[in-house]
Amino acid sequence: MMHYKLIVGILFLMCLAIETGSANDTAINTPNKGFLKVYTNYTVENPNSDMELAYYRSYKIFSIDGEIIRVVPRSLTEPQKISIPEGEYKIIANLEGKESDTIRVHIESGKISVIK
Q1: CA dihedral over 1, 42, 16, 113, signed as positive or negative
Q2: CB 36 within 8 Å of CB 61
Q3: Are 60 and 70 within 8 A, CB to CB?
Q4: What Cα–Cα distance (Å) separates residue 90 from each residue in 43, 47, 83?
Q5: Rounded to whole angstroms, how far apart are CA atoms 11 and 5?
Q6: What angle do CA 99, 47, 53 make, to 5 degrees?
Q7: Are 116 and 16 in contact (CB under 8 A)?
Q8: How far, in Å, are 23, 27, 68, 108 from residue 87 at the CA level?
């Protein structure tokens, strides 16, 4: 059953798209901050023969000038939605089927940007 879910998840993540929408699912709407959610490569590991560990990989957020802003750790359930000041950023992440990809994203106040 896990393999079918993984295949469906991989097919879902094979395209790269940036969507911007309302951040109305947040409890607190911080002025001059927006939100970012990155669907990185979904990794399944078998540390033991009878156990699987699945997670979304970590990724890095850089300023346009190349200064590292934040490292977002891996997530075991769903990609983390993080709060970040509005502006232009570069995201370096392992997306499905790629070793590493750099995506430029614009964060708007009160909105969520999703990268798939």
Answers
A1: positive
A2: yes
A3: yes
A4: 22, 33, 15
A5: 10
A6: 65
A7: yes
A8: 16, 22, 14, 7
Query: What is the C-alpha to C-alpha distance for residues 64 and 2, in angstroms, rounded to an integer?
Result: 39
pLDDT at 44 over 80: no
The rounded distance, in Å, linking the Cα atoms of 71 and 62 is: 9
Distance CA 116, CA 44 (A): 18
**CATH code for the structural domain at 2-115:** 2.60.40
Q: Do 70 and 93 form a contact (C-beta atoms < 8 A)?
A: no
Distance separating the N- and C-terminal Cα atoms of the chain: 24
Name, in order, each residue with C-beta under 8 angstroms of 24's C-beta and a sequence gap of 6 or more. none
Per-residue pLDDT tens over the stretch 49-97? 676 777 888 899 999 999 999 999 988 888 889 999 999 999 988 866 6
pTM beyond 0.70: no
